[in-house]
Design brief:
It is a single chain. By secondary structure, the protein is an alpha/beta fold. The chain has two domains: 236 residues, no CATH class; 118 residues, abc type-2 transporter like fold (3-Layer(aba) Sandwich). Helix content is 65%, strand content 9%. A five-stranded mixed sheet has the order 2-1-3-4-5. α3 packs across α6.
């Protein structure tokens, strides 16, 4: 059985690599796209959840925090009481920033000195963090102007001190490029597997394949394995470009990253084989790949934060494998995550992968 599957796998690789156009599509576009996206893509966020850590309780701190509560840009979701609660909120993405007012804030303002407002912000999406910091600074400036008019203060009333976690320099490439790894891996896996059966039909060799000693499950495995191999090699190449060309830090565990990659490829290859089993021609296969890929990217959180989407759409994203792989990629690259911290992403990704491969096998047997 293994020899028959291996023979079919080698046949698939020869079919892919014999054609110059296929070789070009597999190698050149992903590298060009990672370079273009790495330099060109930036994204915005319109909905900002924040937490308040107020050690002062004086009138001045309440006035300042009331400006954030009354702003349409911000939405307070938590009040915390100690330093240890800051990190979990940012790690879980429950909030984008934490406002910390020190215990001497109102007292310092009453003495004509500057009070200190400390802002802890999630810097994984540097573009978002920069925009949010601008909004925070605008509110602080409005507070300073009002306080100076009312109390005749000379120095700025509130002094802003911020720290960006996970991306201290707020470089947008650190957020965008790990996402491109997932996006391009999905494109390659879908193209390799989504056209495999349709290509056999157009070439007139599929009927010959069916009369060989290969069983349907062996044919399916032979069609799937090249997608795993090529997807893994492409993803590794793109990650190498991200680390060594763009300088994106890879702070987490490589086993955690590649476990997520294999589970993601299981889902992507399964989807590609489902499309290929339904398609009669390569043109239909390309159309099927396009119809799946566009909503998958939109609903992944790559361009638009999932938290900003309507509740019904957020439910739809739960069936999207790219959603979970992006969390794994950014968690390993920027947060230093390991396998133990990513089980909440591995389990649904594995469930989607097993379901897609099972449906692909069922469609393959039913139609052939």
């Amino acid at each position: 059985m293994l020899q028959r599957i291996l023979a079919l796998v080698l046949k698939e690789f020869r079919a892919l690599l014999r054609d110059k156009a296929s070789r070009t599509v597999l190698i050149v576009p992903p590298l060009l796209q990672v370079l273009v996206f790495g330099y060109a893509a930036t994204f915005d966020l319109n909905h900002v959840a924040y937490a308040v850590y107020n050690q002062d309780r004086g009138a001045a701190s309440r006035q300042l925090l009331a400006r954030f509560a009354g702003s349409p840009t911000f939405r307070q979701v938590a009040v915390i009481g100690n330093d240890a609660q800051i990190a979990p909120l940012l790690d879980r993405r429950d909030v984008l920033l934490v406002l910390h007012v020190g215990p001497r804030f109102s007292r310092d303002l009453a003495r004509g000195q500057s009070g200190r407002l400390q802002v802890f912000i999630d810097g994984r999406d540097s573009n978002t963090a920069g925009i949010v910091l601008g909004d925070v600074a605008a509110i602080v400036q409005q507070f300073n102007t009002t306080w100076a008019q009312q109390h005749g203060a000379g120095a700025p009333a509130a002094q802003l001190d911020f720290r960006a976690w996970f991306n201290p320099n707020l470089l947008s490439r650190w957020f965008i490029i790990p996402g491109i790894v997932g996006l391009l891996t999905l494109v390659i896996a879908l193209l390799v597997t989504g056209l495999s059966v349709a290509r056999e039909r157009e070439a007139g060799t599929f009927d010959q394949l069916l009369v060989t000693p290969l069983r349907p499950v062996e044919i399916l495995l032979g069609k799937a394995l090249p997608g795993f191999v090529i997807g893994t090699l492409e993803a590794s190449a793109i990650m190498a470009v991200a680390v060594f060309w763009f300088g994106v830090p890879l702070t987490g565990s490589l086993p955690a990253l590649y476990l997520g990659l294999l589970l993601f490829l299981l889902a992507a290859v399964g989807i590609g084989l489902m499309i290929s089993s339904l398609a009669v021609t390569q043109q239909q296969g390309l159309l099927g790949v396009f119809l799946f890929m566009v909503p998958a990217v939109i609903l992944s959180g790559f361009a638009t934060p999932i938290e900003n989407m309507p509740a019904v759409v957020q439910w739809l994203t739960l069936a999207n494998p790219l959603r979970y792989f992006l969390v794994i990629l950014r968690g390993v690259f920027l947060q230093g995550d390991g396998i133990a911290l990513l089980w909440s992403q591995y389990l649904p990704l594995a469930a989607i992968g097993v379901t897609c491969m099972s449906l692909a096998a069922w469609l393959f047997r039913r139609r052939h």
